[in-house]
Amino acid sequence: MLEVSGFNFTFDETKCLECGGKCCIGESGYIFVTLNEIRQIAEFMQMDFESFCLKFIKKVGYKYSLIEKKMQNGIGYACIFFDEETKQCKIYQKRPNQCIKFPFWEDYREDFNVLLKECIGVVKK
After folding, report:
1. How far apart are CA 53 and CA 35, in angstroms?
2. Cβ neighbours of residue 96 under 8 Å, at least 6 residues apart?
3. pLDDT at position 84, please?
4. Tens-place pLDDT, residues 57-114
5. Who contacts 75 (Cβ-Cβ below 8 Å, separation ≥6)?
6. What is the pLDDT of residue 70?
7. How far apart are CA 36 and CA 102, in angstroms?
8. pLDDT confidence bin for 20, thresholds 50/70/90
9. Is the peptide bond before 103 cis (omega within 30 degrees of 0)?
10. What is the count of structural domains for the chain?
11. Ranges of H-type helices in the chain
């Protein structure tokens, strides 16, 4: 079980295999990445930086985000690197920090009930 100070829940990462990637799908949103993360993912995918950015990155104000794709079932969106067949992340080893920190996001510090609907791995302390 993972714990982060200031959060009133713990997280059982073994539940990720059972959930089907709910943290990677849903409403449209942003998967923010730093330039360093972009470089690492591009290298992991054996792509040059520029080609990777043109294909997978969008600019959001002064930040960068991975693009999303429409779900095959037509309901909602998924991260471009979410494999809908296997229900796994194609870049898991190099996933962005935003993904690594899930479910310990500031929005969930106070609103545990929203997180509870999304993630079967969280347990209230």
Report:
1. 10
2. 31, 32, 33, 34, 37, 41, 66
3. 94
4. 999 999 999 999 999 888 899 999 999 999 999 999 999 999 999 999 998 887 888 8
5. none
6. 95
7. 19
8. confident
9. yes
10. 1
11. 16-19, 35-44, 49-56, 97-101, 106-110, 112-118
- The residue range of the domain holding 58 is 2-124
Stretch 37-57: mean pLDDT, rounded?
98
What CA–CA distance (Å, rounded) separates 28 from 68?
8
Residue 116 vs residues 8, 89, 109: alpha-carbon distances, Å: 12, 21, 12
Tokens 């040059």, located at residue: 48
Other beta carbons within 10 Å of 45: 15
Estimate the share of the chain in helix, then strand, then coil, as percent rounded to the nearest 5: 40, 25, 35
